[in-house]
Recover the amino acids of this structure.
């Protein structure tokens, strides 16, 4: 069965491509050509050569003037667990940083917990400190009261819900001079550890631009945003905040068309608590085109308020909540997914599902609910030669994020 519950292989092919389906079926059938088996000593030597070769290539890239650097490559190293690929990468990174005082090595790991563990390993093996970037909700290791890195979580969460850049809120936060989230920006070392999810956001300015980016194990789970909820009734509100009269009238019309397409899809649901995928036919039947969806997305973004925050935390939280009530970035995101469906090669969306008579949040009763799923992109600010260390990752999947991925020779050691 496909890895997503409720999907068939056609659904999976529409979202991930036929190469991924083929790879999964071959593995499931047990007919995959297994990589050659070598001795533990030979396997370790091969792995060391692969990782060393990557760092040599990265050094060459880093030595070029910035304007002459080609697009950096991404390499996947598959190897038997326990060979020490993470340890080898730490060693080569440390040698790079000692040899080149301008170089920066960034390590992305699956969990916040592992950042502490891996940074400790780096210190133990190299004698050098490594910085750790912790998220706002993570415990502050320098406090003994258990409080989080962000001391005003209500404020930061309200900003995220309103689609406001959290860094702009930090500038006016009354706790900005005492919180761990701001304190960590003072770290001045060149190896950094952080969790995978940070890859899909702009690199914090406190983290230097990388010379090498090392991604340890199964990062792509963090690269999927799934089950994003949006009440269809959000589109029923009159967009009076669109200042241009022509755009306002056009958005009213396009929202009405999209709601009608949702209703067409919802009519196919035959059982309660079930979802149905939106189709190209649903959209085309009401007159929507890719160009019209693009226009709607553009106009929706013009609705985002320009909010100047000041005052105490409760007052700023209230202002942000009011902003989120008037505008949510989920709506332009929805239009982007609609445009993708209309421009794409598939007739059925895997990114948009409709559930009629669903229970809505906030005590708003029941109504038509839109579910969105989308693949996130690694932010361009992390651009650097990239080494992916993973014992089992398949290149067919990873190429959704790194299209030009180079897969090193795979082998099994025993």
């Amino acid at each position: 069965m496909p890895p997503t519950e409720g999907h068939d292989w056609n659904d999976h092919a529409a979202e991930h491509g036929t190469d991924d389906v083929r790879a999964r079926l071959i593995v499931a059938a047990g007919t995959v050509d297994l990589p050659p088996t070598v001795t533990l000593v030979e396997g370790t030597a091969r792995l060391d050569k692969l990782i060393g070769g990557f760092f040599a290539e990265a050094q060459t890239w880093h030595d070029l003037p910035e304007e002459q650097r080609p697009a950096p490559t991404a390499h996947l190293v598959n190897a038997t667990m326990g060979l020490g690929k993470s340890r080898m990468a730490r060693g080569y990174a440390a040698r790079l940083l000692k040899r080149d005082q301008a170089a920066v090595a960034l390590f992305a790991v699956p969990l916040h917990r592992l950042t502490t563990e891996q940074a400790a390993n780096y210190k133990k093996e190299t004698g050098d400190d490594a910085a750790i970037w912790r998220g706002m909700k993570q415990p502050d290791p320098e406090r003994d009261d258990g409080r989080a890195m962000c001391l005003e979580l209500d404020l930061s969460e309200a900003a995220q819900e309103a689609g406001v850049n959290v860094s702009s809120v930090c500038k006016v936060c009354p706790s900005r001079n005492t919180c761990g989230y701001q304190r960590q920006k003072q770290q001045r070392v060149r190896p950094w550890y952080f969790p995978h999810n940070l890859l899909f956001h702009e690199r914090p300015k406190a983290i230097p631009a990388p010379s090498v980016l090392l991604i340890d194990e199964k990062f792509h789970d963090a690269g999927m945003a799934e089950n994003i909820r949006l009440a269809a009734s959000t589109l029923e509100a009159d967009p009076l905040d669109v200042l241009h009269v022509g755009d306002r009238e056009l958005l009213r019309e396009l929202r009405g068309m999209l709601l009608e397409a949702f209703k067409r899809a919802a009519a196919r649901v035959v059982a309660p608590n079930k979802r149905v995928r939106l189709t190209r036919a649903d959209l085309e039947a009401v007159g929507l085109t890719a160009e019209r969806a693009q226009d709607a997305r553009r106009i929706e973004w013009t609705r985002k308020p320009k909010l100047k925050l000041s005052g105490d935390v409760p007052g700023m939280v209230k202002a942000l909540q009011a902003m989120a009530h008037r505008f949510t970035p989920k709506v332009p995101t929805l239009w982007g997914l609609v445009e993708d469906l209309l421009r794409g090669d598939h007739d059925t969306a895997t990114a948009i599902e409709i559930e009629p008579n669903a229970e809505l949040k906030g005590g708003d009763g029941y109504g038509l609910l839109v579910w969105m799923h989308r693949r996130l992109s690694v932010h361009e600010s992390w651009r650097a030669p990239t080494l992916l260390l993973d014992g089992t990752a398949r290149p067919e999947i990873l190429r959704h994020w790194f299209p030009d991925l180079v897969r090193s020779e795979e082998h099994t050691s025993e």
Observations:
- The longest helix spans residues 40-63.
- The two ends are 31 Å apart (CA to CA).
- The chain has 14 helices and 13 strands.
